[in-house]
Amino acid sequence: QIRYSIPEELTRGAFVGNIAKDLGTDVAKLAAANLQVLSDSDSQYFSVNVNTGVIMVSERIDREQLCGQNPRCFLHLKLAIENPVEFYRIEVEILDINDNPPEFPSDEVSLRIYELASLGARFPIQPAQDPDVGTNTLQTYHLSANENFNLNVKARTDGGKFPELVLERALDRELRAFHHLVLTAEDGGSPPQSSKTHITIQVLDANDNHPVFDRPSYGARLVENSPLGTLVVKLNATDVDEGPNGDIRYSLSSHNSAALRQIFAIDEQTGEIRVQGNLDFEEATVYEIEVEAKDMGSPTMEEHCSVVVEITDVNDNAPEVILTSFSSSLSEDAPPGTVVAVIHVRDRDSGDQGKVQCHVSPDLPFQLRKDYEHQYSLLTSTRLDREHVAYYNVTVSASDLGSPPLSRHTILPITLADVNDNAPQFEQASYEVLVAENNPVGSVLVTVSAADPDSEQNSRLSYSILRAGGTDPGLDPTRYLSIHPTNGQVSAKLPFDYEQTTYLQFHVEVSDGGSPALRNRTLVHVFIVDQNDNAPRVHFPRAGEDSAAQFRISPSTAPPALITKVVAIDADSGRNAWLSYNLVEATDPGLFSVALRSGEIRITRALQETDPSAHELVVVVRDAGDPPLSTAVTLVVLVEEKGPEALQGSEARAADGGGLPTITLYLIVSLVLISTV
């Protein structure tokens, strides 16, 4: 057996060995022996030049293809020689040359490593493959410089080398999310060959970072009563983690009061805080809102910040009027300066908007006195008179100094309590009453009426009758009259008789129910009106009830001689006492006449012998009342020669008539004068 060693990848025709020399045979002999080369393989990698005895490479020899990773690679040849037949075994060792660099399965390697991976963690990398053997095969790996990983090459018993990345320094995705390394595989050839693969390491996020607000605290200023939905502030928090670990949700912290949660709301996605309730400066001037930002990692991480919201006051509160002390009833005789009410005012606004001024109408008898800040007293400014104004609605106006100012009006109802400061007053200073005589008992003659502007007991009136000064002491008005004590009706206790009393005067006194009582008087004049209740009375000639007065005249009496005169009086007055005389019956109606008003009886013609000697005359005396009353008198006129005696008798009778009372004479004279007129 002959052995040769040749490197792989020799060119065609390359010298392998000289078989003639190695066999110690002449080249010519080899040629004559019909030398043949037989190969064990399908391919003829070698050929022999029979002329020279040189074995040459006839095809490309790739050791890696022939032998793979076997450390030694052989090709076997058989040489056949005839005459005699001999076989020679030739073994050609194919020596490896460094014709293959190490090759990684891929030029790019991607790793995903959790950023919280423990130090010392190992991450295998698919090894490079080098079909060469021996020193020409893969010998080592080199890792590009970096801060986090080292390279560890793990050798197996079969000589394989496997690279591992070893974590030497903690990863932080937020600092560096991707690491780019270059792993170089190098063989031991000369010169060495190498190949590279690019390792891309993606650091997988761990929820190791809490959200961070761009400011530790926020400030905002809002006007009170801002409309709902007003943006307060937009928060901004960031989380350097990624995915759910960096997805932030905003919320109001549980440390906030329930009242604050009703006023403010936050959008969990955008972090916008908006007004959802009423902002009232008077309830709170500053709101401090605690906000938390949470990521969606597991476990959740959160961060807090505070938002300070200052509320700017606006003039949205009208002043308040509080009655510290108030008396709704005030005596009308209260002197000026009497305190009616003590008023406390306040305004929940601040600054000038919280300063309050009060006033009342100058037309009222009241004024305000400022006692000190926020307190006023309502005083009477003048004398009061309940009878003039009994009730006041005092409007206290409180205004602040805001722009525009707000005001509040409080009405204080004040009732004046009555004092008995007014005497009763009659509707008339005096009363004149005409009363027909013979009035029925109990009839109301007049109603006197008085008024008292005071109230209640002070205005309860009582009437009484008093004798008027200068009145006839014999005429006691209480004898004839009575008065109702409460309604002032004056009634007759007796019927009046004009012929006895024609006039009556008296005082009516009224007193109120005050203490002390106040009084007043009025004078009442009662005039008795005559009624035609008296018939005329004949005073001359006097005659009995069943007899007639006789008169004598001479037959020679010539007309219009006065025979006699009927004299009558009527106790009534006025028209009821106007009398008329009428001749209603006569023996000879044409002989005598009676004067209508004077009652004179005269002869109307001369007497004749045929006339009777006695004449009976019936004279009726009638007054002018309605209905009229009358009295009849009968006279007998005798015609005799002794006429003068008759006249004398007449004169005598007339003389007797001179004994009439004086008042009767006055009445007669009055009647004559009236008749004349």
TrEMBL record:
GO terms for cellular component: plasma membrane. Its main location: membrane. PROSITE patterns: CADHERIN_1, CADHERIN_2. Residues 5-104, 105-213, 214-321, 322-426, 427-538, 545-663 form the Cadherin domain. The keyword Membrane applies. Keywords: Calcium, Cell adhesion, Cell membrane, Glycoprotein, Membrane, Repeat, Signal, Transmembrane, Transmembrane helix. SUPFAM superfamilies: Cadherin-like. One of its GO terms (biological process) is homophilic cell adhesion via plasma membrane adhesion molecules. It is found in: Cell membrane. The keyword Membrane applies. CDD domains: Cadherin_repeat. GO terms for molecular function: calcium ion binding. Coiled coil: none annotated. It is a single-pass type I membrane protein. This is Protocadherin gamma-C3. It comes from Zapornia atra (Henderson crake).
